[in-house]
């Protein structure tokens, strides 16, 4: 039914252990990530999001903190 790029939702996971708080995720995908300025670390706004947004955030995170299921 839907053609072209995926607009389905996929899970998004955030591992803060390797995160150094660059803020790229929150800039690239503000619908998925916010930044906690007190600790300079991101937080997830939602447990899942549009696949394109999740994959773009995964690609931009320099420390591979962001993952999904597939
Ligand atoms: S892009 Fe990655 S390293 Fe940078 S703040 Fe987000 S999760 Fe942390």
CATH architecture term: 2-Layer Sandwich
Distance between the termini: 21 Å
| Overall number of strands | 6
CATH class: Alpha Beta
- Structural class call reads alpha+beta
Shape: globular
CATH topology: Alpha-Beta Plaits
Number of helices: 2
- Uncertain regions spanning at least 5 consecutive residues: none
What does this structure look like?
The chain is of the alpha+beta class. The chain has a single domain, classed as Alpha-Beta Plaits (2-Layer Sandwich), CATH 3.30.70.20. 21% of the residues lie in helices and 26% in strands. The protein has helices at residues 24-28, 51-60, and strands at residues 9-11, 13-14, 33-36, 41-44, 48-50, 66-67. The strands form 3 sheets. A two-stranded antiparallel sheet has the order 1-5. It has a two-stranded antiparallel sheet with strand order 2-6. A hairpin with a 4-residue loop joins strand 3 and strand 4. The longest helix has 10 residues, at 51-60. The protein is globular. Residues 19-25, 42, 61-63, 65-66 line the site of iron/sulfur cluster.
List keywords for this structure.
70 residues; alpha+beta; Alpha-Beta Plaits; two-stranded antiparallel sheet; 2 helices; 6 strands; 26% strand; binds iron/sulfur cluster
In terms of topology, how is this protein built?
Blueprint: E1 9-11, E2 13-14, H1 24-28, E3 33-36, E4 41-44, E5 48-50, H2 51-60, E6 66-67
Antiparallel strand pairs: 1-5, 2-6, 3-4
This protein binds iron/sulfur cluster.
